[in-house]
Amino acid sequence: MDVFSNLALGFSIALSPYTLMLAVVGCFLGTIIGALPGLGPSNGVAILIPITFTLGLDATSALVLMTAVYYGAMYGGRISSILLNIPGDEPALMTTLDGYPMAKAGRAGDALVLSGFASFYGALFATIGLMFLAPVLANVAYLFGPAEYFALYMLAFATLGGMASNNQAKSALAACLGLGIAMIGVDSSSGLPRLTGGSLHLYDGVDFLVAIVGLFAVAEVFFFIESHGKNSSIGVKLDNVRIPWRDIYLTRWTMFRSSVVGFIAGILPGAGASLGSFMAYMSEKSLAGEDSGFGTGVPKGIAAPEAGNNAAAGGALVPMLTLGVPGSGTTAVLLALLMTLNITPGPTLFTERPEVVWGLIASLLIANFVLLLMNVPMVKIFVKILMVPPWILLPGVTMVSFVGIYSLSGSYFDLLLMIAFGVLGYILRKLDIPTVPVILGILLGGHMEDALRRAMVISDGEWTYLFSSPITIGLWIAAIAGFVAPMFLRGVLKKPQRITD
Amino acid sequence: MASDRIFGLVTALLALAYIASAFQVQTSFLSDPVGPKTFPILIGVVGAVSAMFMVLRPDPEPEWPGMRTLGALAIAVAVLVAYAYTLRPLGFLLPTAVAAGVLSYQISPNPRTAAIAGVGLSLGLFILFKFVLDLGLVPFPAH
C-alpha cells in the first residue's frame, strides 16, 4: 500500500541519529513547556521558532523539532493540572477536574501515570489517523480553487469565533484586527505600499512571529506581574510512582471513545484541542451517568480529557498540513513555522515534498514512544521542574523572546512592536477578546485576500462566483452555522468551573 | 460595561481611520478586478460593525488591577522599551541583567531574589545562546 511505502521513506529520515536526537530534545523541552504554568504550547512553540530559525536547521529538522515540542507540551500540560490544580495550558483545564481531586486523595502518582498513558493512546491514535486521512484529504484539496479557499478561510474564522469565544462580536473584531494588520506593507500584486502610515519600518509588513511572541509570551508576563505570581506552587506531594494497571484496563473504552471524539474535534478548522478535551470529558460524563462520581477524582475523568486533548492535537495537524488552515492556536503557530521555512502547506506538499510530510509523521510516531517513556518512568524529573519559581521563569521567558526576535531581524523596531503586541494581548485578554483569531488573521490575511482576488480574476469580477460550486456552498453554510449555532448552544455547552480549594 | 464600550468606541474610530486610509491606497494602472483597496475596506467595515456591537451590548466589567499594580505594569513596559533600545549599543549582559532583575522584582518584590534572577539569567542565557546555540551575541559595549 501507498501509505506503507511512504512511511518507510519517512522512517528512513526520522531514524537518522540527528533527527532522532532532535525529536528527543523536542519531547523533553515540550514536556517542560507544557508542565510549567504560564508557558503553554502556543507561547512555548512561539518563542522557540525564532531561535530554531537562527540555528539554521533545514525544513524537516525544524519541523520535527517543533512538532515534538508541540506533542510534548500536550503531554506535559497535565502535570501541573494534576499536581497544582493549574492547567499548564488551556486544553489541560478539563484534566484538573478529576486529576486534582485524585491527587489530593493521595493517588498523585496513579493520576500522572494514567493520564500519561491516556495521552499516549490519544496521540498515537491521532497520528495513525493523520497518516491515513491526510493523504485522502490532500487529494480532495486538489479540487479547491481560490473561491473554495476563500470560503475555507471564512469557515476557519467563523468556527474559531463561534466555538472558542464567549462573544461572537469580539471574536469577529479580533479576526478583523489580525486581517487588518496583515494588509500592512507592500501589496503583493501591485507592488505599492499600503496602510504603512508612511513608516519605512512597516514596508515589509508586520512579521507574524513578532505578533505571536508579543501576544502570547510577553502578555503572559504582564499577567504574572498582575497576580504577583501568587496563584502558583502550592501543590500535592508526589510519592512513589507505580503503574495502575487496573485503572488503565478499566478506562480502555473511555480512551478509545475520547480519542475518536478528540480527533474529530481536532480536524474541524478552528476548533482545536480545547474543544477536543472538553467534548471528550462531557461525553464520557454523560455516558457514565449521574452517580459515576465525575469531578471527584475517578480514573475515567482523567483518561477522557487527556486522550481527547492529545488526539485533537494530532487531528489539528490534518487541516494544517493538507489545506494550510490551522485547527487551533498552537497549530497556527506551527503554520507560522512552516511559512518561515518557506514551506507552503497544502495538497502539493504531499506530492512535491513527501520527505517533509512523511518524515514528520514518522517522527511523530517515534516521539509518542519517547514521550511515553519520559512521562511515565521519568515523570519525577518534570515534577521537580515545576518548582521553578515564577520570578525567575517569566523574566527568563521574556529575555528568550527578546533575543529570539532580535536575532531574526536585528532591529529594535521589531522589539518595540513586540512589546506593543504584548500590551495589546494583555488588554484583549482582560476584555475577554480571544487572541487566536488575531494570530490567524495575521497569518492568513495575505492568502485570504489573494484567494479573493484570484477568484475575481477568474470570474472577471462576478461576485456570485464565490458561491458557485457545491464545495463553496457547503463551506459557507458550515461557516455560518459554526458562527451562529454556538449562540443557541451556549446554555448546553457551559464549561464546568475550576475546582477551588 | 464601561471598558467594553470604551474599547469598542476606540476600535470603531480606528476602523474608520483604517477605511479612510484604505481609500487612499494607490492603485496601479494594471489592476485586477478587486484591486488593493477592496479587501482592507471590507475588513474595516466588518471591524467597525463588530466594535459597535461591543459598544451596544457590552459584557460585564472585567476585574482591573489597582493603581499599584498598574504602576508595576507601566514600569515593566518602560523597562522593556528601554531594553529594546539598549540591547544593541550596550551589549547583552548589562541590559539583560537589569531588565530581568526589574521584571523579577515586579513579580515577586524581593530585592535579593530579583538580583539573583537578573544576574543569573543574564549569564546563563548568554552562555546558552552564545556557546550552546551559537547565536551572534555581543556581551559588552563595542568599543
Write up what this structure looks like:
The complex is a heterodimer of chains A (501) and B (143). Chain A is globular and about 65 Å long. Chain A has one domain. Chain A is 74% helix and 1% strand. In chain A, strand 1 (185-186) and strand 2 (193-194) form a beta hairpin. In chain A, helix 6 (146-164) packs parallel to helix 21 (470-489), helix 8 (208-227) crosses helix 19 (412-430) and helix 18 (390-409) crosses helix 19. In chain A, strands 1-2 form a two-stranded antiparallel ribbon. With 501 residues, chain A is mainly α. Chain A has helices at residues 2-14, 17-35, 41-55, 59-84, 93-141, 146-164, 168-183, 208-227, 245-250, 252-267, 272-288, 299-315, 317-323, 329-340, 347-352, 354-375, 379-385, 390-409, 412-430, 436-459, 470-489; strands at 185-186, 193-194. By secondary structure, chain B is mainly α. Chain B folds into two domains: 2-56; 67-132. Helix content of chain B is 69%, strand content 0%. The longest helix of chain B is centred in the N-terminal third of the chain and has 22 residues, at 2-23. Chain B starts with a helix and ends in an 11-residue tail after the last helix. The model of chain B has no long low-confidence stretch (mean pLDDT 87). At the A-B interface, helix 3, helix 7, helix 8, helix 18 and helix 19 of A face helix 1, helix 2, helix 3, helix 4 and helix 5 of B.
Summarize this structure briefly.
Chain A is an all-alpha fold and 501 residues long. Chain A has helices at 2-14, 17-35, 41-55, 59-84, 93-141, 146-164, 168-183, 208-227, 245-250, 252-267, 272-288, 299-315, 317-323, 329-340, 347-352, 354-375, 379-385, 390-409, 412-430, 436-459, 470-489, and strands spanning 185-186, 193-194. In chain A, 74% of the residues lie in helices and 1% in strands.
